[in-house]
Write a structure and sequence with these properties.
199 residues; Rossmann fold; 2 domains; 9 helices
């Protein structure tokens, strides 16, 4: 059994971990406890949060959106941001930490399966709309773009009845983690690192 504290961006991610990801990992002997940052994520706040929670868990990880991450450096990539998170934390936290930043935000994962999205939203038109968005990004949900108007959550809010905290985790539950892993390589690689902790 492995106990992991996961620092998450806000209530949507917290509910996703409790409802979907945590249950999936529990079948593998990995027990995740989400702790919400309440938004406004930056390296300094994350560093302090991770130090606070590290003493209560064998390992700690993060689930922050790249798009919403404050005080990013010019041209900073996801990988560079994860390295900066790792470099910033207290020396005692480093051996326990798997830093993870989701491209471009949590809602990108929800584009992994148009059929599931439409079912969870109870909107038949959402299926074709989601397929069209995926086609635009070569069927890679993690590349649905980083901008104020066209980030995944903004697309959902503009084109469906999406309500973030309610629908986000519900759509994720409908899709299931295996399908998200198949469609979203960054997300899959993060879960591989977590699963190795239980081996």
């Amino acid at each position: 059994m492995v106990r992991i504290g996961i620092s998450v961006e806000g209530p949507t991610e917290e509910r996703f971990v409790k409802m979907v990801l945590g249950q999936y990992l529990a079948t593998k002997g990995i027990y995740m406890t989400p702790i919400s940052m309440g938004g406004d994520v930056n390296v300094e706040r994350a560093k302090n949060e991770l130090k606070k929670i590290a003493n209560s868990f064998e390992f700690v990880t993060t689930l922050y959106d790249f798009y919403g991450f404050k005080k990013r450096l010019d041209g900073e990539t996801k990988e560079a941001l994860e390295r900066r998170l790792m470099d910033s934390v207290h020396e005692g936290v480093k051996p326990k930490l798997i830093p993870y930043v989701q491209m471009y935000e949590f809602e990108g994962l929800l584009f992994s399966c148009p059929e599931s999205m439409a079912r969870a939203l109870n909107e038949s038109g959402a299926q074709q709309w989601c397929k069209n968005v995926l086609a635009e990004f070569n069927s890679n949900p993690e590349t649905i773009n980083n901008s104020v108007e066209t980030a995944p959550s903004k697309r959902l809010l503009s084109n469906t009845k999406y309500r973030k905290t309610t629908h986000g985790p519900n759509i994720a539950a409908e899709i299931g983690i295996p399908k998200m892993r198949e469609m979203c390589l960054g997300f899959h690689e993060w879960l591989c690192k977590i699963e190795r902790l239980a081996q």
